[in-house]
């Protein structure tokens, strides 16, 4: 009996606050679980440093397990899908203006 292959390896050292993604366990993710994960969540998991495609080394020898990587993991983790919408309070200046039609006769 063979064990199911791992699609993503969980790196708990990169998740000291216990953040999670919807439907993704705080453990190694099997191929079946990964296939069942929606593509937008897969993209968020891959963008974080909490999971790796390859088996991580021990924390003492893993290059990513530096203090700066531990501190910056919050910046890299998006817990919910975010739409591609820019939000600003500044006035928007058009790049291209419409031609002046006041002098055009019909």
Q: Care to describe what's here?
A:
The chain has 106 residues and is of the alpha+beta class. It has a domain at 6-76. The chain has three helices and three strands; from the N terminus they run ββααβα. The longest helix is centred in the C-terminal third of the chain and has 10 residues, at 67-76. The chain starts with 5 loop residues before the first strand and ends in a 30-residue tail after the last helix.
Count every beta strand, where a strand is a DSSP E run of 2 or more residues.
3
Q: Which term fits the overall shape?
A: elongated
Catalogue the unreliable spans: 60-65, 72-76
Q: What percent of the residues sit in helical stretches (DSSP H or I)? A: 10-25%
Number of helical elements:
3
Distance N to C terminus: 83 Å
Task: Label the structural class.
Answer: alpha+beta
Could you give the order of the helices and strands? Answer: EEHHEH
Biggest pleated-sheet summary: 3 strands, antiparallel
Percent of residues in beta strands:
5-15%
Q: Strands of the biggest beta sheet: in what spatial order?
A: 2-1-3
| Overall mean confidence score, pLDDT | 76
Please give the radius of gyration in angstroms: 22 Å
Topology at a glance:
Layout: E1 6-10, E2 29-30, H1 31-36, H2 39-47, E3 51-52, H3 67-76
Antiparallel strand pairs: 1-2, 1-3
